[in-house]
């Protein structure tokens, strides 16, 4: 079993949640195609990787989050999420 951490993926998810207009403001380089995410997830699963973060940008963000103080990471996450969810 592999826990896949896909980050921002181009799919219908944002249409269903009503957040498409908000997330369009995110930079293009944060996004991955669903087919690339699925391929990487499948390859990680076949390799026996327990947790896999897709994409170079997502992996970099995840690594940085390990070294920053937890309150800083949580505050950044809340602030970013609020900015894109409030529409």
Topology diagram in text:
Layout: E1 3-5, E2 9-10, H1 13-17, H2 20-23, E3 32-33, H3 34-46, E4 51-53, H4 56-67, H5 70-85
Parallel strand pairs: 1-4, 2-3
Explain this structure to me?
With 87 residues, this protein is mainly α. The protein has one domain (3-85). The protein is 57% helix and 11% strand. It contains 5 helices and 4 strands. The strands form 2 sheets. The chain has a two-stranded parallel ribbon with strand order 1-4. The longest helix is centred in the last third of the chain and has 16 residues, at 70-85. The radius of gyration is 14 Å and the shape is globular. The protein starts with a strand and ends with a helix.
Q: What's this, in brief?
A:
The chain is mainly alpha-helical and 87 residues long. It has helices spanning 13-17, 20-23, 34-46, 56-67, 70-85, and strands at residues 3-5, 9-10, 32-33, 51-53.
How many individual β-strands? 4
Strand content: 5-15%
Order of helix and strand elements from N to C terminus: EEHHEHEHH
Structural class: mainly alpha
Name the poorly predicted regions: none
Radius of gyration: 14 Å
N/C terminus separation: 36 Å
Share of helix, binned: 55-70%
Task: Work out the helix count.
Answer: 5
- Strand arrangement within the widest β-sheet reads 1-4
- Mean pLDDT comes to 87
**What general form does the structure show?**
globular
Largest sheet: 2 strands, parallel
What count of domains describes the coordinates?
Answer: 1
